[in-house]
Amino acid sequence: MSNLAVGRKLLNNQVIRFVLSAGMGFLVDISAFYLFYHNLLTERRYQIASLTLKNSTLSLSISFFLGVLVNFVITRYFVFTESRSSPLKQLTRFVFVAIVGYFANLAVLDFFIVDLNFYPPVARITAALSLFFASFFVHKFFSFSLSLRHHFPGKHKDKEL
């Protein structure tokens, strides 16, 4: 089997495509986090309205949502292409999952930085990787409404919610 055939076979695998999609979002997220944490946000704390945010928290907020945007676009058009949900419904669900993921990342990031004394960019990578695997299933079954019934067309006549 040629390398091209192997590559095509791998790209037919939805999990592999999701890993590539999430990887692109991850690279955007991590790169932006590093850029904001070290170069653009030079203060240790920032006052925004009545909130005081640490540099790492503000850097995470910005980088995370940049990564989510990239991840959504690639996931929608490259991974879960068979979804029949409207793009707006997909985006709404994707963002909802991302918000939950953001707070999970924030908690894990804070734990790694404060309790385990990790270097913040390393803590960011560790936090993201620790939550990665659950996101495939959440996005597949919730964000893009792809359950097992979609794998057996014609067997179920369920209406999509």
Describe the structure.
This protein has helices spanning 3-11, 14-40, 55-79, 87-115, 120-143; strands spanning 45-48, 51-54. With 161 residues, the protein is mainly α. The chain has 5 helices and 2 strands, in the order ααββααα. Strand 1 and strand 2 form a beta hairpin. Residues 148-161 have low confidence and may be disordered. It has one domain (3-151). Helix 2 (14-40) runs antiparallel to helix 3, helix 3 (55-79) packs antiparallel against helix 4 and helix 4 (87-115) packs antiparallel against helix 5. It is globular and about 50 Å long. A two-stranded antiparallel sheet has the order 1-2.
Short précis:
The chain has 161 residues and is mostly helical. It has one domain. 71% of the residues lie in helices and 5% in strands.
Shape: globular
Q: What proportion of the residues is helical, as a percent range?
A: over 70%
How many runs of DSSP E, i.e. beta strands?
2
Following the backbone from N to C, one meets helices and strands in this order, namely: HHEEHHH
In terms of DSSP E residues, the strand content is: under 5%
Number of domains as seen in the coordinates: 1
N- to C-terminal separation? 42 Å
What structural class do you assign from the helix and strand content?
mainly alpha
Count of DSSP H/I helices: 5
Strand order of the largest sheet: 1-2
Chain-averaged pLDDT:
82
**Largest sheet, described in full?**
2 strands, antiparallel
Radius of gyration: 18 Å
Unreliable stretches (pLDDT < 50, length at least 5) are 148-161
